[in-house]
Every structure is written in C-alpha cells, then in structure tokens.
Design a protein that fits this description.
This protein is α/β, with parallel strands linked by helices. It folds into two domains: 167 residues, Lyase, Ornithine Decarboxylase, Chain A, domain 1; 249 residues, TIM Barrel. 29% of the residues lie in helices and 24% in strands. It is built from 13 helices and 21 strands. The chain is globular, with a radius of gyration of 23 Å. The chain starts with 15 loop residues before the first helix and ends in a 12-residue tail after the last helix. Bound molecules: pyridoxal-5'-phosphate.
Amino acid sequence: MASPLASPHDTPDPDFADLLAQRPHLRAHVLDGLVMDDVPLVNIAREAGTPTWVYSAATLRRRHAALRDALREAGLAASIHFAAKANDSLAVLRVLGDEGAGADVVSEGELRAARAAGIPASRIVFSGVGKSAREIALALEEGILQINAESAEEVERIAEVAAATGREAPVTLRINPDVDARTHAKISTGLAENKFGIAYGDAAALYARMASLPGIRPTGLAVHIGSQITEGMAAYRAAYARVADLARALLARGLPIERLDCGGGLGIPYRDEIAPTPAALAGAIRATLGPLGLPVMLEPGRWIAGPAGVLLASVVLQKRGQNRRFVVLDAAMNDLVRPAMYEAWHGILPLAPDALHAPLAPADVVGPVCETGDTFARGRALPDLPPGALVAFLDAGAYGATMSSTYNARPLAAEVLVDGHRWAVTRPRQSHEALLANQVVPDWLGAAA
Ligand SMILES: *Cc1c(COP(=O)(O)O)cnc(C)c1O
C-alpha cells in the first residue's frame, strides 16, 4: 500500500471483529447496529445528539469487581480508590461508590464531585503536587481518609493548616522511586526528573519529621509511577520493592505505618497492546509488599473507566483530498484530546448495521478544529461514511470528557449512562448561551458599535 495512505503503525490495525471481541459490553446487532449492553447506540445519538460520551455502568461494575477479586485472591487486604481525574461524571462516581469504591482526588473540584456522588470522605485520598491551604483545610474538614504529601514544603503546610483548624491530618508520603514506567513521557511520573513525590533518599527523614509534628498522623507510603503502563510488571515490582524496603526501615525505627498506597497506572489495550492483568498486578503487590502484612490501596483510573466509555460522533462530510479521504466529524480534539496530546490510537466503529460489514478503504478521521493536530486517525480502514453517518470512538471512558475544553468556542459534549436496557443523559450538552453566560465586557469599553 502506498505509504501516505498507510497507518503509521508497523502491525495491521485490529479489524472491527477483533475490536468487538475484546469488548464484551459492545456487539454488532444485525438490525440495531452497534449496541452497548442492551441499548442501540444509534438511539442515543438520535435522541441526545452528537458528540456524546456514553458510559456502561455494567462495565464499570465488572472491572471494579475484577480488580477487587484479584487483590482478594492474592490474599491482600486492599481498598480501591478510583482516580476521579480519569472520569469525574457524578453518575460514574456514584456507580463505583455504590460498589464500595473510594476515590483518589487531585483538586477541590474532584473532592466535591466525589462527595456529591455519595462517596464518603473516609474513602477518599487527596493526591497531587500542589494542594492549596484552602484545599487542605476542606479535606480535613470533610474528614478525609488521607492526604498524600509530595514535598517537605507541603508537609509543613499541612501541619500549619491542621494546627490552625485544630484537626489531625492523616498524611501518607508519596515516594518518587526513580523507576521508568516505560510509558509515554507525558504520563510518566516515577522518574527522579519528574515533579512528583519525595526523592527516595529524603523520605525517611521527612517521615520521621511528620511523626514529630503535632497536627500530623503519619499513615504510610504511596507510589504512583505513571499511567497506561503496559510493559509487564517490572516497573511496578521495582517501585513496590523500594517502598517495601523503606517501610521496613521506618518500622524498624519505631515509626507507625497504617497502610501502603500502590497508586494506579494499569494500562489497557487501545490497539493491540498486551496489557497486564489485575492478577499480575496483585501478584506483584503480594510478592513485594505482602510480607509486611499491611493493608494496601490501589488508585486505578483508566483501567476501570477507559473501556467502559465511547464517544459518539457524526460525520459532517467526507472530503476527497489528493490521494486521501478525510472523514470530518462533529467531534474534535477539544472533546477527545488523547490522539493530539499523546499520539493515542482509539478504535473507531461505525454505528449503522450495514456500515459494520461494508467494503473498507483508508481514511483520515479529523475534527473541525483549526489545528492540524485535530486528527483522530490516519489511514484507518473504514467504510464509506456519508454526511450524517455515526461512529463511536472506543475506550473513551477515561481521560476523555475530563480533558475536554471549549477550544474554538465549542460547547462541552453531552454525557450518557447506560445501565442494562436503561439509559439517561447525565450531563446535557452545554448550550451556546451557557458558553457565553459568565463573561463580562467591562463598562469602560463602551457600548458595541
Ligand atoms: C492519575 C493518577 C492515578 C490514576 O492513574 P491511571 O493511569 O488512570 O490508573 C492514580 N494515582 C495518582 C496519584 C494519579 O495522579
């Protein structure tokens, strides 16, 4: 095949049947086309319009349970804290909270979202490299499970806020283990050069300092080395082994440790990546941290929510360029930024029953935003997709809607939850009025000409 038309990958793209076989919540129905659980996605696109994010409640529950069961079968006392930055939809957080999940939050907004969805503060972890005094105060006021501190400066700040509010702060120290998660540079977090965590060599002294501060209750150690980790368990094992060594040293000095936080990062197959299983992760935790006999925590985001969501879009037009077919959608990089930001590959399936079996030809799938980076796929084998045809981006349930913007003054897309045969709009499409509503033109600019 001529190179400008070919996919940039050196292995063939998975075909529609391969993509569906890996995703049990999606199937191709002869009359209804692409169906999520018991709901034809065409119905949702027709009634809610496009672009629209659609999440499968059953898939969220199933994946949360798979992680929980793998940890249990490894003999670990473990709790799961869903990383809300992957998906902060209140409906999604409610589904997971009802399953017993806690949350990992990185801002006041996410803390409020988790609480609004009914997740008790006693199951919420506050992570992040730059928590403000206001955020710390709110977390303590809510009675948060733990704050993961990322620097000596932050520990002092937490102690000050605790003293000022008369509360005790449960603080876990996030260690930077200096291991290479071998993921995309923009989502690698466990290298010494990254901004995250306390340098390993400084951690013991800081932990002892925490124990001496009156407002602080040291609760343990945390590590999170990056996201979309697919290259086996070696990086996880290396990071957890360093945490285990440090924990042993601290315990030997008589310092208290209540639990160990194993972070998130478990990858998923977007294209044909061989992603590690929950059992492999649980095994790595047991082998390294298990002998300490302490409860462990997991902060998965992408692994739970990624496969549970799709982004529905409509074709605006097919543009025949020189040697290329461009499929221009009504979804754009402001909706799903992962391809532009991380060169990410997302499966794209047509929704109509006949289109799932029609002849294929290469196409570049793009959005209408005025950036060349607004390209979802190059040289993708797709059927003829006339104006109005519908498609679904797969695995869009994590770092999809949460990373959206209104770039090009495009309103935020709608969100929908599917639960069995039921579905509901959980966030209506933002209106153009709402997009302009909170802006002010100063009086001193005078009246419009
Ligand atoms: C982003 C993040 C997570 C979740 O990462 P995933 O790759 O989505 O599992 C967990 N913990 C922390 C501290 C994070 O920043």
